[in-house]
Automatic annotation (TrEMBL):
<dbReference type="InterPro" id="IPR027417">
    <property type="entry name" value="P-loop_NTPase"/>
</dbReference>
<dbReference type="GO" id="GO:0016887">
    <property type="term" value="F:ATP hydrolysis activity"/>
</dbReference>
<dbReference type="Pfam" id="PF00005">
    <property type="entry name" value="ABC_tran"/>
</dbReference>
<dbReference type="InterPro" id="IPR017871">
    <property type="entry name" value="ABC_transporter-like_CS"/>
</dbReference>
<keyword id="KW-0547">Nucleotide-binding</keyword>
<protein>
    <submittedName>
        <fullName>ABC transporter ATP-binding protein YtrB</fullName>
    </submittedName>
</protein>
<feature type="domain" description="ABC transporter">
    <location>
        <begin position="5"/>
        <end position="230"/>
    </location>
</feature>
<dbReference type="InterPro" id="IPR003439">
    <property type="entry name" value="ABC_transporter-like_ATP-bd"/>
</dbReference>
<dbReference type="GO" id="GO:0005524">
    <property type="term" value="F:ATP binding"/>
</dbReference>
<dbReference type="InterPro" id="IPR003593">
    <property type="entry name" value="AAA+_ATPase"/>
</dbReference>
<keyword id="KW-0067">ATP-binding</keyword>
Amino acid sequence: MNHIIQTSDLTMRFRGCDALRGVTLNVDEGTVFALLGENGAGKTTLIRILTGFQMPTSGTCRVMNLDPAKDALEIRRRAGYVSDAPALYDWMGVGEIGWFAGTLYDKHFLPRYQESIRRYEIPEDRKIRHLSKGQRAKVALSLSLAHDPELLILDEPTSGLDPKVRRDFLESMIDRAASGRTVFLSSHQMAEVERVADVIAILHDGIVRVCEPLDTLKDSVIEVAVSLEDPLVVLPALPEPAEVLGEASYGRQRSMVIRHYDSGMHDLLASRVGVTGVSERTLSLEEIFIAFTGKSPPREAIDRAEAAVEIEGGVV
């Protein structure tokens, strides 16, 4: 499969801040690729580099086999882009801005834009300045999709949209990927991402912590709850390739989020002197994200673990 986006060891340094620290990513054609990260993780900086608005400090990247440093205008012509706060000409009407943008593309742009605006029920004669935040987002989405881009880059695109429109829009991203188009999505809405993404990358403190197909990622990370006779019981170190992403203790309960856990490790923990029960639970994408960004399992996770151990007959 061809890569529509390739980055290699990208770094971006600002005064007093390393926004990106060696980011390497490959985005395949015909996929919905989701980039997750906290505020300040470097997501928007990466998008600005991909679209040629920001030159990296070091490293290389190619978008649609073009160099953003040299071919920024061609990339912007062939790609669609929507930010969480789209910049639109407030003095224009909804119809006018479609006509204006249409002069930059082929004859199919304006009819597609007008159809999208009608579907969103936005009057063409209304001024941009009089639109709500959600309506502005719909206009921006319509403009970004009207030229049927081979790559659609979305930075928090559903901000301000009502739940129904948000759901319909995200489902349309699956259809785009099925037709061979590519969607590069940056979002904080974990439940939405989990429903539509093919591949997940988690960016934390300027570093890509993980980049895997969603199903592979969810299968490889699990929460393990261990019930102990005494809180001071020391658990054995897990063999490679296991990686403990987060750990928390509450009394005689210990919870660990572990990557690459297997049944042999279950037996290793269960056979430890002082261990009275071991249970496992699959995690949601949001819980996996929290684990990779360096936070301990929440108290609720321990409560669920205690309940699971009680059901299995363990001592709590």
